[in-house]
Specification:
Largest sheet: 8 strands, mixed
Number of strands: 24
Helix content: 25-40%
Number of helices: 12
CATH class of the largest domain: Alpha Beta
Shape: elongated
CATH architecture of the largest domain: Alpha-Beta Complex
Structural class: alpha/beta
CATH superfamily of the largest domain: Spore Coat Polysaccharide Biosynthesis Protein SpsA, Chain A
Number of domains: 3
CATH topology of the largest domain: Spore Coat Polysaccharide Biosynthesis Protein SpsA, Chain A
Distance between the termini: 37 Å
Length: 444
């Protein structure tokens, strides 16, 4: 800790704080002093391995005969199979922390992949990056980067140099056997030529940054077949190359409002399951993203709206307080400006847009359309019309809370399980989380 002075609103105040550590690591390969890497002092074996991999000196762990890092003396001693080139031409890069590369590639491999990413997947991975950085960082001045497959963040790295974060990712992936080809890279720093070149060497298919790319990075990504995205913030971004490879969402389902039920007591879970972490964000946020991609209007039914202020949508209470899930459906249907609603529970992280769209295409004149799974009817993954309101109020007034009581007196269309199974193999779209052991299996 050192004394730091902060100026704000005309006042200079002294306090104690930490600053980023700068650590020079002398790298010797096959008895030859190769370079001094200026980096953060952690996981230096990953940094060294990734640096040598991206310089083309090694391609697998089998290429190492020895890898020794002595942090006390700031030295890494490596022996690899084969010999280093006689002449190495250093290139000083523009990366923070003074990056060094022995050769900027003249030609780069073309990224060839059928994998495409949606804007929501880009925002989601960038949010995961921010959360991970906030979790481990105690001070500013550090760059961070991560790779993901559209569902999960697979490798995370941070360093004072943005180019070092990619070296670290390459090295850790090598040690852990993570295939990087076709993945998405997000970074907190500017995308420069060396960052784009390293990503191309790894087969990265999309790069996204909170800030801007350089003009040469744009050209390199264009030539290498990489989708390059910048200024990812506030629900917006700019695309600089290969915009056609983004997977843009289909149009919204017309005439239907999305309703998320978040009013349960979560008694079996023992805590509010809507706020359980899933993929780096609260479980209900995952459901909201899917619903927002399907419907122009999404609403959360909850009697505790302050718990969900992070969701940018209306929050409404039950009209029949204590009426369970049916009261939530009734509240959403009464509030909706559309004639129909689609209802989903807050604990359904695998809600499948394709299944919801297919069910919407089956709607006719019925007031309720309910799919069937191998576990029976799925009324919390169903469509309801305003014509069902009188019957709902009848059973709720009689304090009959079970949705089956409603279904018995309504004209309900049931989509048989054998048809639903073709839309949702294993009925994954209906999977929810009620017990701690179910959550543990989900996150393990």
């Amino acid at each position: 800790m050192i004394p730091i002075h902060t100026y704000a609103k005309g006042v200079l105040e002294e306090h104690e704080g930490e600053v980023v550590s700068e650590y020079p690591l002398s790298l010797t390969v096959n008895g030859r002093e190769l370079a001094t890497l200026v980096a953060s002092p952690h996981s230096l074996n990953f940094l060294v391995a990734g640096f040598l991999r991206l310089q083309g000196f090694i391609s697998s762990l089998d290429d190492f005969e020895m890898l020794s890092v002595c942090q006390d003396f700031g030295a890494a001693n490596v022996r690899i199979k084969g010999e280093l080139p006689e002449k190495l031409r250093p290139v000083l890069t523009s990366g923070c922390g003074t990056g060094i590369s022995f050769s900027m590639p003249v030609s780069l491999p073309q990224t060839v992949t059928e994998r495409r990413y949606t804007p929501e997947q880009i925002f989601s991975l960038m949010e995961m990056l921010g959360r991970e950085a906030d979790r481990y960082r105690s001070h500013g001045g550090i760059h961070s980067a991560a790779v993901g497959d559209g569902e999960r963040m697979l490798v995370y790295a941070e360093d004072l140099g943005r180019h070092n974060t990619l070296d670290r990712i390459a090295g850790e992936a090598l040690f852990k056997g993570v295939e990087l080809s076709g993945l998405m890279l997000v970074t907190s720093g500017r995308v420069s030529t060396e960052m784009a070149a390293k990503a191309a060497q790894l087969g990265i298919s999309l790069i996204a940054s909170r800030t801007s790319p350089t003009d040469m990075a744009v050209k390199l990504c264009s030539d290498a077949g990489i989708t390059l995205v910048g200024y990812v913030r506030g629900g917006r971004f700019q695309v600089y190359s290969h915009h056609q490879r983004l997977l843009l969402p289909a149009g919204k389902i017309p005439g239907v409002t999305g309703v998320i039920l978040a009013g349960g007591r979560s008694s079996r879970m023992g805590r509010n399951k809507a706020l359980l972490e899933f993929g780096g964000s609260p479980l209900i946020e995952t459901v909201y993203r899917t619903m927002a991609g399907l419907f122009d209007q999404v609403v959360v039914v909850t009697n505790d709206p302050e718990d969900y202020q992070f969701l940018p949508c209306p929050k409404i209470p039950d009209i029949f307080v204590g009426g369970g899930s049916m009261a939530g459906i009734h509240a959403g249907l009464s509030w909706s400006s559309t004639q129909r609603i689609f209802v989903a529970a807050c604990d359904m992280p695998f809600l499948d847009p394709g299944v919801v769209r297919a069910l919407a295409g089956l709607m006719g004149d019925e007031d309720i359309l309910v799919p069937e799974s191998d576990g029976g009817l799925e009324p919390l993954h169903a469509f309801y019309a305003k014509g069902a309101i009188p019957a709902m109020e009848e059973v709720l007034t009689a304090e009959r809370k079970k949705i089956v009581d409603l279904l018995l007196i309504m004209g309900v269309r049931v989509v048989p399980a054998r048809e639903v199974a073709l839309l949702s193999p294993g009925f994954a779209s209906f999977r929810n989380i009620n017990l701690p052991e179910e959550y543990a299996r989900l996150t393990s």
